[in-house]
Amino acid sequence: MPITGLHLLLTYKCNFACDHCFVYSSPHAKGVMRISDVRQILDEAEKLGNINWIFFEGGEPFLYYQTMLWGLREAKKRGFKIGIVTNSYWATSVEDAREWLLPISKIDADALSISDDAYHYGETEENFAKYAHEAAIELGIPVDTITIDDPKEYMKDIEWKGKPVVEGSVQFKGRAVEKLTEGLPRKSWAEFNKCLDEDFTNQSRVHIDPFGYVHFCQGITIGNMKKIPLHKLFEDYNPEKHPICAPLLKGGPTELVREYQVDHEEDYIDECHLCYSTRLKLRDKFPEILAPDEVYGIQE
Ligand code: SF4
Predict the structure, then answer these.
(1) Residue 276 to residue 253: CA distance in whole angstroms
(2) What is the distance of C-alpha 216 from the center of its chain?
(3) Cis peptide bond N-terminal to 292, omega within 30
(4) 276 ligand 1 Cβ < 6 A
């Protein structure tokens, strides 16, 4: 498997609890990596030999700023490219943002992605993302913006002919399924016969969470690296034998429903909506694969 990027979910905690968040992050979410966890992942990344990128994400990684900085520094020292995804809650002015970003620019970060949309900053709120963006440019940090649009707007005129190709569209998994599905156009469950976003035979990146779970798609894991070393999880992975990836490969979320004869509604918004809703019903059967509880909105 040509995995070249490890995306560390440094924490599931976030100062926001956005409706579109597909890992159910919130101020109450549990799970934070320690420096020892980050070190273990970097050790494994070196052993794997083909990892180029280490990303720090969440949740909101700036909530654990010193741990994130340690990880960025250490990853860079070991020769990896480094990136961060943030909602920039910390950028209370351009001047303040500069102070937060200065240590990161000194480490020579290779990418900074900033969430900037109405879910994070409504039109009336002061937009911290803009301050962070400006400070990053001043400091020479490569920066881009992640903007998620309101599906009620971009889906309002569609007749279902396939997943709408919209830059910044919501992924209907996690909290988005609970909060954003009402009133949107749907089509028959039987038509969602292909996963459009993941290639389980040819994954290029994985997400690793604070509990050690290694995710292909959020909530679909190939195991836990606190129990089995990462390189061994990759070696042992066989897409044809994985109980969730195999049916998804064969016939998308529709096949996942058929394979396990899961009760379902007639219509869904898109592939992810059917996939996530089906997985929720299969969690008792595959507790170590469809994990952790946090991603499925079960936090207590
Ligand atoms: S269809 Fe399922 S596996 Fe594919 S991207 Fe959507 S949620 Fe992930």
Answers:
(1) 9
(2) 10
(3) yes
(4) yes
205 token code pair: 């990146």
Mean pLDDT of the region 191-206? 94
| Backbone dihedral region for residue 276 (phi beyond 0: left; psi -120 to 50: alpha; all else: beta) | alpha
Residue-wise pLDDT for 84-114, tens only, equals 999 999 999 999 999 999 999 999 999 999 9
Task: Tell me phi and psi for residue 203, to 5 degrees.
Answer: -65, 140
**Sequence-separated (6 or more) residues with CB below 8 Å from residue 288:** 221, 223, 224
- Residue nearest ligand 1's atom 7 by CA: 272
Beta carbons of 188 and 161 less than 8 angstroms apart:
no
Q: What is the pLDDT of residues 60-83, one digit of tens each?
A: 999 999 999 999 999 999 999 999
| Residue 40 Cα to ligand 1 middle (Å) | 28
Q: Which two tokens stand for residue 184?
A: 């949107």
Helical spans, DSSP H, in 186-270: 230-236, 245-260
pLDDT in tens, 160-185: 444 444 456 778 888 888 888 888 88
| Residue with the two structure tokens 């290029």 | 204
Report the CATH fold assignment for 5-86+149-185+201-238. TIM Barrel (3.20.20)
Q: What is the pTM of this model?
A: 0.91
* Distance separating alpha carbons of residues 85 and 131, to the nearest angstrom: 15
